[in-house]
């Protein structure tokens, strides 16, 4: 009887990892990882930045080879040399950065590279329709991907892996870019997939969401699995404490520090694209010393362009931008930096880091004309190295050393380093685009404390974030951007994420 029961359990295990280990120079990314994921469940993997979650998922998806350990899929031992082998075994992965071709249709994107499944014609179209209907994915096969919103693009990514026959789907922080309504829709899709017997593995730093959707949660700490819990048995705070291995400090509350001294002033800023479409439409606001202005918006509504216009990476077609009374509308990015603007970019790989350079050289990036990384016209190597050490300590950047390349750091640790760098040298204005994207809850709280402390000292902040709790928790005022226009003004003390979500999608009334 027992033997039969065991067999049943074994047959239901979609993924079984035993003794997985993976080393990188100076780092043990994974060791002694044991993980069982039952078929037809949603299984969340949580852990601090650098705990080893992505490495583990990359091993399961064949992007990286483990140094030791075994993998079984549906009870059969496997060893993947590439993602295509993982896909053939029924394992698919949806990355946080979507990999779709904008100028192709949904159908073309799904079929591209998987022509062997159902060709590229009527059969392929039929299969895509079947999949969309079965799982309640509401997407038109003939729409161009560039016309889709963020949530819809994510559905296309999921359809892509389903189309390739995936039964196990790994999702890397799938909610990071979604508004609350889209998160609800994604979770409905995931529940539907689960009902049909799919297995979903889900990395997330948003612990309340993990508790809402997961059947099981595995905690990874310092490279190894340290526990497995049922969502009903723990609170988000207890889960965070399991991740860290100790009690978390209580979050700070803060008094308003807003002054009446203008720092950043935008008047009628307008920006058109090559086709004459308004990306920014008559944007006006003032941010004062000690004030954080939060901008909420569904990705693609002008927030990126707004930040880049203030940073001087795009020239407005109309209006003015001034900093502490100086007109900077035509100034170069370098002049703006020298005038005291810190910049946490949205895309850390494109604009924030030289991935193949050591961390200390990354300290110099964007700061090559100022102390401590420059002395006169020369780069001050010693100064940059010392300040890198300071940032690593102050922002708890987990790295073997400051000579490690930026690429070798986990995503969250790269982000912590950028925040530390941009907060250096007492900027007067911080342009912060998603400053805590990808960082764990402990590091998020620490970054918020750093920003609040700088605000107390007079820092003005333009905060763009997809994390509505962050906007509400940090901002003095929140504005919504929709199709390039600023819409409502919201008080963070009374607004809810749902209210903001409605305004962001244009579903709410104009304020
Ligand atoms: N290609 C690599 N080369 C060197 N070290 C690496 C590489 N990839 C990951 N590491 C290291 O392995 C450890 C685990 O990183 P991993 O990306 O798996 O963490 P994570 O839990 O996904 O973190 P985050 O939440 O920040 O994304 C980190 O110390 C990281 O610096």
UniProtKB/TrEMBL annotation:
<dbReference type="InterPro" id="IPR017871">
    <property type="entry name" value="ABC_transporter-like_CS"/>
</dbReference>
<keyword id="KW-0067">ATP-binding</keyword>
<dbReference type="InterPro" id="IPR003439">
    <property type="entry name" value="ABC_transporter-like_ATP-bd"/>
</dbReference>
<keyword id="KW-1003">Cell membrane</keyword>
<keyword id="KW-0677">Repeat</keyword>
<dbReference type="GO" id="GO:0016887">
    <property type="term" value="F:ATP hydrolysis activity"/>
</dbReference>
<dbReference type="InterPro" id="IPR027417">
    <property type="entry name" value="P-loop_NTPase"/>
</dbReference>
<dbReference type="GO" id="GO:0005524">
    <property type="term" value="F:ATP binding"/>
</dbReference>
<feature type="domain" description="ABC transporter">
    <location>
        <begin position="264"/>
        <end position="508"/>
    </location>
</feature>
<dbReference type="GO" id="GO:0005886">
    <property type="term" value="C:plasma membrane"/>
</dbReference>
<feature type="domain" description="ABC transporter">
    <location>
        <begin position="15"/>
        <end position="247"/>
    </location>
</feature>
<keyword id="KW-1278">Translocase</keyword>
<dbReference type="InterPro" id="IPR003593">
    <property type="entry name" value="AAA+_ATPase"/>
</dbReference>
<keyword id="KW-0472">Membrane</keyword>
<keyword id="KW-0813">Transport</keyword>
<dbReference type="Pfam" id="PF00005">
    <property type="entry name" value="ABC_tran"/>
</dbReference>
<keyword id="KW-0547">Nucleotide-binding</keyword>
<dbReference type="InterPro" id="IPR050107">
    <property type="entry name" value="ABC_carbohydrate_import_ATPase"/>
</dbReference>
<protein>
    <submittedName>
        <fullName>ABC transporter ATP-binding protein</fullName>
    </submittedName>
</protein>
